[in-house]
Amino acid sequence: MNAWFEAAGAAAWGAVGFGGLSRWMDPPARARAERLCPSPTGVFVAAFPYYAGDDPGNLSRYARGEDYHAAVVRRLEQVCTQLRARWPEHIFRPSADSSPIPERAAALCAGLGVLGDNGLVLLDKWGSWVFLGTILTNLTGYPWPEPVPLRRCVHCGACAAACPGGALEADGVRTDRCLSHLTQKKGELTPEEAALLSAHPLIWGCDVCQQVCPYNRAAPVTPLPEFRDDLVPALTLPDVAGQTRRQFLERYPGRAFTWRGPGPLQRNLELKDGE
């Protein structure tokens, strides 16, 4: 299988039995997984690098290339084609950030990396600049491994110290102060949220905790063209103002920053114009 995942562009991959992974899932998530794949036995998980350098811009690095939901599933489908040819009687369901499978937990259980204090999975060589995708299956006869013991980062404190919203606490990430979350929030902002967004250099997402992480210090540029080429690093107010959701999607097809429509982006840009 190494050759299949490597040919699909995965920087790393692993597997974990569904029984072990299900301990990270609540009953509704387990029920959804079993509807997608009756009698699931395991999950394959893979990481795809997306770091494309430090060019300036006001969009988070993950959102500058092709929408990872589509790109990662397309690459996982290459693996699934091989799996289905080898085991045609079994089900193989690829997904990327769109299924009940907890992808970070799957990556950690499969031993792909360590858990960072910012909640991200940190891989050797690539750091946290990776997208995760999974393949849920009912494949029998495969030696599904038990989850590996959880490994954690070195706790250097760099991410917590640099977080512009003070969102990283000892017991986890406060989404109400995480700029990645707040930039995507629809509806009215509180005065505190508006102040945080106004001071934030990005209008979509946040890369600060990743930029200061020592695991990311020497990350190479991705070899995957969908995350390296034809990037949209920044938007201006004329790029989004006065557009309907449909017009915006047609102007920027296949981009992760479009899923909320133009509204949050226009609001965030206007906050900066009003400084």
From TrEMBL:
InterPro entries: 4Fe4S_Fe-S-bd, 4Fe4S_Fe_S_CS, QueG, QueG_DUF1730. GO terms for biological process: tRNA queuosine(34) biosynthetic process. Keywords: 4Fe-4S, Cytoplasm, Iron, Iron-sulfur, Metal-binding, Oxidoreductase, Queuosine biosynthesis, tRNA processing. GO terms for molecular function: 4 iron, 4 sulfur cluster binding; epoxyqueuosine reductase activity; metal ion binding. Residues 144-173 form the 4Fe-4S ferredoxin-type domain. It comes from the Bacteria. This is DUF1730 domain-containing protein.
